[in-house]
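Lab notebook, bench 4. Still working through the backlog of constructs that have no structural model yet. Next entry is a single chain of 500 residues. Request: give me the structure tokens for it.
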Amino acid sequence: VLLCFIFLSFVILHYSLDVSAPLLRTQAFVDGRWVSAASVFPVLDPATGQEIARVSDCGPAEAKQAVDAAYKAFQSWKLCTAKERSVLLKKWFELLTLHKDELAKLITFECGKPMRESLGEIAYSASFIEWFSEEARRVYGDVVPASVNDRKILLLKQPVGVASIITPWNFPSAMITRKVGAALAVGCTVVIKPAEDTPLSALALAELAQQAGIPAGVLNVVPCSREKAPAVGEVLCTDPSVAKISFTGSTATGKVLLKLAADTVKKASMELGGHAPFIVFDSADVDKAVAGAMASKFRNSGQTCVCSNRFLVQSGIHDRFVEKLGRAMDAELRMGHGSEPDTTQGPLINIRAAEKVVHHISDAVSRGAKVLRGGKRLDGSFMEPTLLADVTTDMLCTQEETFGPLVPVIRFNTEEEALAIANAATVGLAGYFYSQDVSQIWRVAEALEVGMVGVNEGLLSCPEAAFGGVKQSGLGREGSKYGIDEYLEVKYMCLGGLKP
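Model written out:
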């Protein structure tokens, strides 16, 4: 792997985010106004540790104000026609596209992504707003044939109300638009709590939503520090005015939020942790499998919920696949600050994330795994992309999600063995496999216990497809025509006393 060794002092001097950037906002956004909290918290560049900005540190009081503003705005927003909401969302989409470079730079500096990936995320983010701007006008109810002649049965779809949107740091823009686009399209209003590591992207989206003409109170953002997150989250999950919670993050946190929401029986969407298998069968095109593995594993330095985490390779092509993957890592991966044009691997989000990867590598090596590439932690939260061979199912890296640039390869002999290993996890978000055997493709795709399957494809997310998992990977679906249903209630209307 070609490494970018940079002295920390040089990095701090060389890379900085322009504090006068036109979309840099540091206050909370409540009821159409920029609001300061009593205190602030720092947002750091994970590549350098340098402070980018200080952001309002909201607490329960600000969260309650945002919920109240959203509830008030809901009374009028739900009465807007679908076309009116569609037009406003389309304007928001156009502004995201117009300001893609500024938005991408915010992601790179607060999240650590290479600039080319950040630009890709903004295009992905905007695509959800565009998709749901179109779906807003296609929320159809039903007329159901009645069993008697003097009545009509109508099924109406109505917005649930205020939605709490709680998002992670790894896709600080797209995880918001995928949820908020659907919510606003059907007439819901939202309160967004972005991750404490990456609030700047959420606040920039709010600025552009305001410029697009989305009314005050329809979209609110309450950033907060890690220390205040539990108290803010409790308000967003327990306030009676909130009708719906949408969360993306760890399974452990999702379970806490579901418990908080239970007392008021709120509707909930949960996109939780993954542990994706990547299976390469003997019939696979090895070159395509290697390309798919590179795309699936090393995007955002391995920090995505659908990243491949366990690599299962059949004995017949195991050695060839591992050799070619190692060469691809050498040739294609370059570490550095995300703003450098050649960088493909930025830092992990923080030191704790890097320490977890090191722990997984150390555990695997202690149990017999061999390090074929990488294996070392560098300055700060930078972690070498690492390839492990001779991996077994008793190692930590095959039992829990790593969320970093680690490729642990398990050798298997039969299709049944691979499926047993893949399905042993308690989670099931995404899974991938490579095969040119059509019968095997159908068998394995149906047998994998995941919500999404990539067949001969390492990247599968798009606005048209339903995104979500099974088992403890979550509840509900995002994106697609199904994602909009998460923000709707079906009301049964029986119109009786009619003359046949």
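Notes after review: The first strand starts at residue 28 and ends at 30. The first helix runs from residue 8 to 14. Flag for follow-up if needed.
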